[in-house]
Amino acid sequence: MSVAFRREGDDEHLEPKFEHPIPVGPNLVTARGLQLIKDRVAELQAKVAALTDEVALKIAQRDLRYWNTRQSTAEQPPVPSGAKVEFGTTVTFLLNGNEKTLSLVGDDEADPASALVSFSAPISRALMGLELGDLGDFAGREDAIEILSIEVMQ
Q1: Long-range contact pairs involving 97-103 (C-beta distance under 8 Å, separation at least 24)
Q2: 147 DSSP assignment
Q3: What pLDDT score was predicted for residue 15?
Q4: What is the CA radius of gyration of the chain?
Q5: What residues form DSSP beta bridges with 8?
């Protein structure tokens, strides 16, 4: 049989494992977000120390590199005043007549199902800087947003 048709092993056909992508821009975090990152790092450090399976260890080490980077680049901005929508606030607003409440948080803390939205999301960018009673544009519609309340996250 020709050497050209022989396969040395299955490893050469596995998909490569890439590093987790780091979101572009600053790594803003709330106090809660920073604690979540620290907890994740501690959890992964313990996992890496306990693992013996080579594949699982490589995956855990890759995850740990990501979270260590996120922890070392975390920036906790000053606590917002609550006078305008900014990072670390919870805002209630009308969007095309429907009432919504969202909290603006960091990329790693974002959980849209829990109304925690990244500060870099389009809706967050549309809300930033608006004050109580202000109207804002969103998705090509003028005055699609009306700010009802702004609270500083705890």
Answers
A1: 99/148, 102/127, 103/153
A2: E
A3: 58
A4: 22
A5: none
pLDDT over 90 at 7, yes or no: no
pLDDT tens for residues 55-86? 999 999 999 999 999 999 999 999 999 999 99
Quote helix, strand, coil % in the chain, to nearest 5.
Answer: 35, 25, 40
Gap between the Cα atoms of 112 and 91, Å rounded: 14
Q: Mapping DSSP to helix (H, G, I), strand (E, B) and coil, where does residue 27 land?
A: strand
The one-letter amino acid code at 124 reads S
Fill in the amino acid letter for 123: I
Point out which residues pair with 99 in neighbouring strands. Answer: 94
pLDDT recorded at residue 6: 57
Instruction: Find the mean pLDDT for residues 116-139.
Output: 96
H helix runs in 5-147, sequence order: 31-50, 54-72, 122-127
Greatest extent of the chain over all pairs of C-alpha atoms, in Å: 78
Confidence of residue 22 (pLDDT cuts 50, 70, 90): confident
d(CA 77, CA 29): 7
| Two structure tokens written together for 140 | 């090509």
